[in-house]
Design brief:
With about 240 residues, the chain is of the alpha/beta class. About 30% of the residues lie in helices and about 25% in strands. The protein has 6 helices and 12 strands. Strands 6, 7, 8, 9, 10, 11 and 12 form a 7-stranded parallel sheet that branches. It has a 5-stranded mixed sheet with strand order 1-3-4-5-2.
Length: about 240
Amino acid sequence: MIRLYVKSPLLEKQDISLSDVQSHYLQKVMRLKEGDEILLFNGTHGEWLAKITANLKKSTTLLLVSQTRSPQEEGDFWLLFSPLKPKRQEFLEEKATELGVSRLWPIRCERASTLKVNFEKMEAHAIEAAEQCKRLTVPTLKPLTPLSDVLKTWPEDRLLIFGDETLTAPSLGTLAIDAQQSYAFLVGPEGGFSPQELSVLRSHPKTQGVTLNTHILRAETAALVGLSYLQVRRSG
């Protein structure tokens, strides 16, 4: 069944009006008509069955029928990454959302090859991935932030694990994971962290460098390796 993310509160017997883009998708792409049902979620109120009650030219109205899934905890992993070229970043955003990250945070590093982030597209990719993978939430998005600023204000209760491309850090597989600890994973730019950035990262009290593989991985591959390991170890 089709699932759509909406920003409206979801309460029984409530009417929901969809955006122009969502209305076009239901009417012109999926060919749905009045009486058809879809699923809606908003990241807060679980998932709801909704019935189309009106299909106008540029708008669709639905009536919330019943809750199909209650709100639930979906994990608390953050992904920090240096911006990538559009297609590769889209892949990263999609897969990170599928893996359950709760925050996507682009970071400005000294050797970054890309210094811009299209947040509208970033949000759209995350929402689409959440709709397709049956998540009840969408990752929160943070603005592009210099690495130095991130580290200065890093929370005391969260460990930041970063991929150390020098291959001198302990293997990721040797890292002990505490189910009660909050984690974030940082993957650097294609050119790697600068010597100064590595020095700051290694000396920070809430960071831990890891070696992900005997080979140098591309940024999106490194991110998915790190996230997958954290998810499996915490859930296991």
